[in-house]
């Protein structure tokens, strides 16, 4: 009988093998990643049944960013929160769906990690059966262990993330994460309920074949952003930028994942309606920037690397240019010709 067992690597085995490379590791981060796997499986099961159960439609409330909350947003928020808050690995959590950070109970068992997450990304796509995702960012606590965790633990620069990743509920469910040693992707085998290593050490192409942007915002962009997008669409005429194909799903996780694998640039610039762009720094841009940088790509706000931005508030937004390195550099060069708004 052929012996194939070692060719199947579960996420548990992979995380454990990674942990062994760090003799100083206590296993807490590994366990926190397993907690997120559990949340991923629970959310995935719910998403897969979305058309069958009474979970579609709006819950009627408006979240801190002014979007109408979908029921699945709340379900995913609770799933992540329940998976991480009682295990003694996390001390404070920030969710897109909650204005204030949530302290983990009880005080005596609060852990050394901070988690920031977008429980359900791409929520306008829920009702139309299009891919959606979850994004997470993990930091180490910086305030003293004996006191209460505070905003300072949550407002850390992206470069300090100890882990980041996303779960994509697409044609299959995938979990993609980095702890700063490359980017690894796992696909959920629903028949056994395990994430299996399917994309080890993902490297994103240096130049991409896609540009991804909501072009309906064209008239609200600055001339420099218009020039950059026009060059991605038509080529720059000088031979440096070839015309690209367009792909835009409107689910950040799905758009980023496709470009990570196939190469491309995703842009969500500032515009006259949203002076800071639309996407949130702490739980959308920063974790995805770490993933993309770790895969050999780049992410900026048009001028500075996303991972160097110092956050001032929990739900702060940022313009985002992310993807293949050469494409992001090309956009940044065009944007640098524009004066910084006062
Ligand atoms: P969320 O569903 O978490 O609020 O995020 C929505 C975001 C993101 O997923 C996507 O890239 C972007 O909104 C799409 O915005 P537009 O509809 O303006 O293109
Ligand atoms: Mn989102
Ligand atoms: Mn969301």
Structure description:
With 342 residues, the protein is an alpha+beta fold. It is globular and about 60 Å long. The strands form three sheets. An eight-stranded mixed beta sheet has the order 4-3-5-6-7-8-9-10, sandwiched between helices. The protein has a five-stranded mixed beta sheet with strand order 12-11-13-15-14, sandwiched between helices. It has a two-stranded antiparallel ribbon with strand order 1-2. Helix 5 (223-234) runs antiparallel to helix 8 (325-335). It has helices at residues 11-20, 28-48, 71-85, 151-154, 223-234, 252-262, 281-294, 325-335; strands at residues 58-62, 68-70, 90-95, 102-103, 113-121, 132-140, 163-169, 173-178, 183-189, 194-199, 210-212, 245-246, 264-268, 298-300, 320-323. Residues 118, 121, 252, 284 line the site of one manganese (II) ion.
